[in-house]
Write a structure and sequence with these properties.
205 residues; mainly alpha; globular
């Protein structure tokens, strides 16, 4: 059922996918869907819980390693711990459909759909944000929040791969191995967090 739902959500989005279509693709009846998931939102939640667990576990382990060190981690190290597991998974050939589901649901007009995405990642994402904030004390709270927005935007864009840059130039960069993609994204976002603070905003004390 989850595999059928993933493929349909990827093709048609959440609103465009009916439980009837999921049942037809999965070869199950209404009772099975309602017994396991209750409704369509419950089905989406179950899909995210199953698919993001490995990424969350990897991120937790890497962040724990940084927190347990005597020396405070560098901005690049914190970013690497958060970005690398997500991109390693996203670049797996089997992840194309779920990448699209994530991209569509994270900007869905319905708040309850967006909340499913946020809640699946929130515990480890909040831990990451706290550690990254400690590594960037030179930034005001507002500057840090804007740069975090930009980091998420860059990461989501790379994962969704809508082909915009390839259409402007070429797709040579998309042929690079995932380790190079991670290195480029970490370098780019780290430079943003390391840039000077906004002098017009009050500094974090």
């Amino acid at each position: 059922m989850l595999q059928a739902a993933e493929q349909l959500f990827a093709r048609h989005g959440y609103a465009g996918t009916s439980l009837r279509a999921v049942m037809a693709d999965a070869g199950v009846d209404t009772g099975a869907i309602h017994y396991h998931f209750k409704n369509k939102l419950g089905l989406l939640k179950a899909l995210f819980e199953e698919r993001v667990s490995r990424v969350n576990e990897q991120r937790e382990a890497l962040l724990s390693g940084l927190e347990q060190r005597a020396q405070a981690p560098a901005i690049e190290e914190v970013l690497q711990a958060f970005i690398a597991p997500a991109l390693h998974t996203a670049y797996s050939p089997s992840e194309a459909a779920f990448n699209r589901v994530t991209a569509l649901c994270s900007v869905d007009p319905l708040q309850e759909v967006r909340e499913v995405v946020f809640q699946a990642y929130d515990p480890v994402a909040q831990r990451f944000a706290r550690l990254l904030r400690q590594a960037a004390p030179h930034l005001s709270d507002t500057a840090f929040q804007w740069r975090l927005e930009c980091m998420y935007g860059a990461m989501m864009y790379i994962r969704s791969d809508n082909g915009r840059v390839s259409s402007l130039l070429n797709d040579a960069h998309r042929k690079e191995p995932v380790e190079q993609v991670i290195a480029q994204l970490v370098a780019f976002t780290a430079a943003g967090f390391k840039a000077g603070a906004d002098e017009t905003a009050p500094r974090r004390q």
